[in-house]
Every structure is written in C-alpha cells, then in structure tokens.
C-alpha cells in the first residue's frame, strides 16, 4: 500500500498521500487512496467517507471518515475557514499529546491545513516577480520573534488574484476580476529558508481554488519546483538539475476536531517528501 496510515480509530483514518497517487481515480486499473484504504479495511464494501482532496501530483496528510456521522462532522469543519483557535506546536507525524482542546460554545470548529512548497526564485523578468523576490529576501534577512509562541516570526506575504478554471483542460489561470467565471483567490506565505535559486515557503490558504497555490505562485514569478504544467522553462531545467521529479508541494500539517470526542487532533509530517531524494 502506497498510503501511510498515521492514526486510526473507529471513527477516523488519518493518512499520508504520496505524490503521484490519486485520492480517487475514475480510470479503470489506476491505483488510488480510496481503493487502497477500502482493501485495508476489509469486509464487503466498507464505508470510507472522503472529506477533502489533494491534487494527484501533490503529497500530504488527509483524514477519512469511517462512519457517515463522522463524515458529516468532518465535512463541516473542512468547509469552515480559519474560525477555530490555532493549536500550539505539533509532535512530528503524531497526534499532539496535549491535544485535548475542545471548541468553545461560540467557536465554529474548522479544519486547518498547512502547506510547504519549494519555489524557484531565479525568474528573470520585471514586475510582480521582482517585487515578490525582493520581499522574500527581506523576510529571510529580518525575522522577528513571536514572544507569545516563542518562535521566529517571519514576514507574511499575501497574494491576491482572480482565477478562471478550464475544466476541459484541467487548468486554471489568472485573469482580470471582471472576467465571467473568475473567482477571487487569496493566500499568505512566509519564507522559511532560501538558498541558491530556491526558497522553502510555508503557505496558508484563505480560499480554496483549483490549483490555487501552483497558479498564484507561477503568476508571481515563483513557480513551484517540479511543476511541469505551470512551471517556466527555467524552473523546469532547474528542477531537472536538482532531481525534483515531483511537484514540491505538500500538505504537511492537518488539524481538526475529533468528530466523536470533540478533542483537537494535530498532525505534522516528520520530513518533507522531496528531502529524501535531495
């Protein structure tokens, strides 16, 4: 089984999805997570509720429901955005030991997903790309201290665009706001590390659009390494040189409230997938 199980009980199944494996495939004979996990659960057509997805080339943590009741509650959390309190530091790859915080009476439980990506910073063009790369340099060189959380706080940079999806081509692109069908896309990112012509960034999605992270960073002149679809000739050549065969984008952390107990569950990967081969 290509999927890796991180946690399981009678209500939920938390797994790591490797790059290249579809969450649910419509193609006959093509492996996917749903089929793998149903085979793992055994029995005749076991229930497995699909709560959220990741694009096939993208890796990361996903939670599945093992009962319809759990699926309903988790789906409500996945639909909410940023309304639940933020947790503290996570244990890597494990549920946080003191993760027993319950949402207050007025809190709306929300599923929180954190992404990490490697972006190419060697783009040679004027405009937005130059501005974003300049901000990256500043955010790395002048970090601040968040005393409350006792950790380094770097400058968060916001990207705001309007995206138009082409269903037939399975792509999205940045367009003007007044284009029919365009949807506003927002994200925040901070730079964790920069070296050579690449930067490691931590991303918070404020909206959930088709291929949002890949399209917005490409439009900003910072294409994701390993991204053949939205990358530039320069970024593709650099990716090949460095051995990045898959998209360097990972949903590395996931937090939600347990559908039965209400306890906060926090998960984080020990290592980013592309580190193993580079």
Task: Provide a compact summary of the structure.
This protein is α+β, with helices and mostly antiparallel strands. The protein has helices at 33-41, 68-79, 128-141, 212-219, 233-242; strands at 4-8, 12-17, 49-50, 59-65, 112-120, 144-146, 151-153, 156-166, 171-175, 183-195, 198-205, 249-257, 264-268.
Determine the structural class based on helices, strands and strand pairing: alpha+beta
What proportion of the residues form beta strands (DSSP E)?
Answer: 25-35%
CATH class of the largest domain: Alpha Beta
Q: How many individual domains? A: 2
Could you name the ranges where pLDDT drops below 50 across 5 or more consecutive residues? 82-101, 140-147
CATH superfamily of the largest domain: Pseudouridine synthase
Please count the helical segments: 5
| SSE order, one letter for each helix or strand | EEHEEHEHEEEEEEHHEE
Distance between the termini: 24 Å
CATH architecture of the largest domain: 2-Layer Sandwich
Radius of gyration: 19 Å
Largest sheet: 11 strands, mixed
């Amino acid at each position: 089984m290509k999927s890796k199980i991180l946690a399981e009980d009678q209500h939920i199944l938390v797994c790591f999805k490797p790059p290249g494996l579809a969450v649910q495939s419509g193609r006959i004979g093509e492996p996917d997570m749903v089929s793998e996990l149903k085979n793992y659960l055994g029995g005749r057509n076991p229930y497995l509720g699909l709560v959220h997805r990741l694009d096939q080339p993208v890796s990361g943590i996903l939670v599945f429901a093992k009962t319809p009741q759990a699926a309903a509650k988790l789906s409500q959390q996945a639909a909410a955005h940023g309304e639940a309190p933020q947790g503290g530091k996570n244990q890597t790859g494990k549920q946080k030991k003191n993760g027993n915080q319950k949402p207050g009476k007025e809190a709306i439980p929300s599923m929180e997903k954190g992404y990490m990506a490697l972006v190419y910073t060697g783009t040679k063009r004027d405009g937005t790309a130059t501005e974003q790369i300049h901000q990256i340099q500043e955010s790395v060189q002048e970090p601040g201290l968040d005393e409350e959380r006792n950790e380094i706080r770097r400058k968060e940079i916001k990207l705001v665009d309007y995206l138009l999806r082409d269903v037939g081509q399975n792509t999205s692109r940045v367009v003007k706001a007044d284009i029919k069908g365009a949807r506003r896309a927002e994200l925040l990112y901070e730079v964790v590390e920069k070296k050579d012509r690449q930067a490691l960034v931590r991303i918070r999605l404020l909206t959930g659009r088709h291929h949002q992270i890949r399209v917005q960073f490409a439009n900003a002149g910072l294409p994701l390494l390993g991204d053949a679809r939205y990358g530039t000739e320069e970024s593709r050549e650099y990716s090949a040189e460095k051995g990045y065969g898959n998209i360097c984008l990972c949903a590395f952390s996931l937090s939600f409230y347990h559908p039965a107990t209400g306890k906060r569950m926090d998960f984080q990967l020990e290592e980013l997938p592309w580190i193993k081969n580079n």
